[in-house]
Each structure stands twice: as C-alpha cells, then as structure tokens.
Amino acid sequence: MSKQPHILVSNDDGYLAPGLLALVNAVRPLGRITVIAPEQNHSGASNSLTLSRPLSIHRVAGGERDGFFFINGTPTDCVHVAMTGFLDEKPDLVISGINQGENMGEDVLYSGTVAAAIEGVMFGVPGIAFSQIDRGWNRIDDAAKAAHDIVAQMLVSNLSKNHTDGMASLLNVNIPNRPYEDLYRWRVTRLGNRHHSQPVVVQDSPRGDKIYWIGAAGHVKDSSEGTDFHAINEGCISITPMQLDLTHHARLAAMRANGWDRG
Predict the structure, then answer these.
(1) 14 assigned to some structural domain
(2) pTM tops 0.90
(3) What's the domain count of the chain?
(4) Is 12 among the annotated ligand-binding positions?
(5) Residue 99 assigned to a binding site
(6) 43 marked ligand binding residue
(7) Tens digit of pLDDT for each residue in 192-243?
(8) CB-based contacts of 47, cutoff 8 Å, min separation 6
(9) For residue 15, which of 57, 70, 62 has the smallest C-alpha distance?
(10) What residues contact residue 200 under an 8 Å CB cut-off, 6+ apart?
C-alpha cells in the first residue's frame, strides 16, 4: 500500500478565512493534511520573516477547524517553522490559499499567499498558490473543487518531483468566481504586467497628522494572449509556472561583454 502524500496547507488571510477551510476540506481526500496558518490577516506580507520576537503556535480544538495550527506571524513564518523543526519530516507538497482576490502579474511579488508556496520551494518541496479572482468569497466551494483537481493533477505528474535542475515546481493559480461546471478550462500562462500602482490616499488623523494608505494596484498593462490576465478574461483558470531565479541572464552576459567584470 503506497504512502499517502503529506500536504502542508497555509494562507495569508488567516486561519479563520473561508478560503482556507474550503481548500482544506476539498483536498482532504488526497492525502494527510497539516494546516499551519497565520493568526491574523497578512495580505501583502510577501516573503517576510518575523525576526524581532519569538513565535507561538496554537492548535484549534473543536469545531470545523479542529486540528488547525495557527502562528502569530506571517505566511512565510508558518511554512518556515514547519520545515525547520515543527514537523517531524518535510511534507510532499505545500499549498497556499485560497486567497481572497487575484494574484496576477506583479502581484506575486507582494503576495503572502504566493510567499507561503515559495517558502516550501526554498526547502525543496513543490508549492501551489491558489487565489480567487474576485473578493468576497463568492463561489469559494466551487473554487476549492477546482483546486482539488489541480492538486490531484500535481500529485500524479512529474511536477511533484524535483527536476534535473534540482528545483521544486512552483505554480501560481488564479480561479474565476464561477460555478464548478464552468471551471474545466485550464490555461498554462506567463505572468502579465500592470501599470504602476495608484497614488497613495492621504488623510488627516484625529490628531491632525498626515496618514497614508497604500493605493490600489495598477491597471492591467499586458493582457496579451498567453498571460494570466488573458486566461482569466477568457473565463479560464490560469496556471503559471514560476521560478525563484531573479537573475537577468541576458543582461548578465551583456554586462560582462561590456567590461563590467574587473579584477
């Protein structure tokens, strides 16, 4: 009898988020599930680790989240702690979400949802980040069913194993808020592109000080065919394979050719 895969589940909306519960319930038939999620919402936390204070882990007892663990830290903290001592052994897969709102284009650089999946990849474990396009949790159970199908596909494919380059697979998945029957179309995509973020919103505090709210994400700039934005506009699920190597290899070669190497 083959060993059940061990799936670590986290998110950035917090352990009480409906998207996390829906995802966990959907993937339970696929393996042994461990849930370690932030205590509070950490949207936009990116890959931040908490280094200024100790972290505490608590286990939920009773209710529909019975057995969930939560940490007073970030999504990256959750996966990092799991990988470096909390779990007896590394899981076979890390999944994160389902996030309330899209993570496309440059969003992935800020997203705590994506960061949790990235942290698994940094420890050699494949990761999938799931986001639902529209906020408000509309049709979250349908999105979770689609996430189940994608996780099942991942577990039976060669993406669940490290490749010749030694890197674990990393997928960023965005799911339209549609009935499950409409979510059968998947598109493998590249990241699109946004314009610059909207300006900050300036207000006066009750004490007369200026306060600043980060503005909304920029409007879509590149939604051409093949991008995540284009797939979503077509009503499809967008699945973007990503990598952690941020080196601009073409520019690296050009700089060396133009004498930037010295000594």
Answers:
(1) yes
(2) yes
(3) 1
(4) yes
(5) yes
(6) yes
(7) 887 787 888 889 999 999 988 887 887 877 778 999 999 999 999 999 999 9
(8) 76, 115, 118, 119
(9) 70
(10) 212, 213, 214, 215
User: Radius of gyration of the chain from Cα atoms?
Assistant: 19
The CATH number assigned to the domain holding 56 equals: 3.40.1210.10
In a domain, 211, yes or no: no
Q: Which residues contact 110 (CB under 8 A, 6 or more apart)?
A: 44, 46
Q: Which tokens is 176 given?
A: 């339209």
Domain, as residue range, for 164:
6-193+221-258
Q: What b/e sequence results for 172-195 when a residue is b if at least 16 CB atoms lie within 10 Å of its CB, and e otherwise?
A: bbbbbbbeeeebeebbebbbbbbe
- CB under 8 Å to 77, separation ≥6 — which residues? 38, 49, 50, 55, 71
DSSP secondary structure letter of residue 236 = P
- The length of the chain is 263
Q: Is residue 243 included in any domain, yes or no?
A: yes
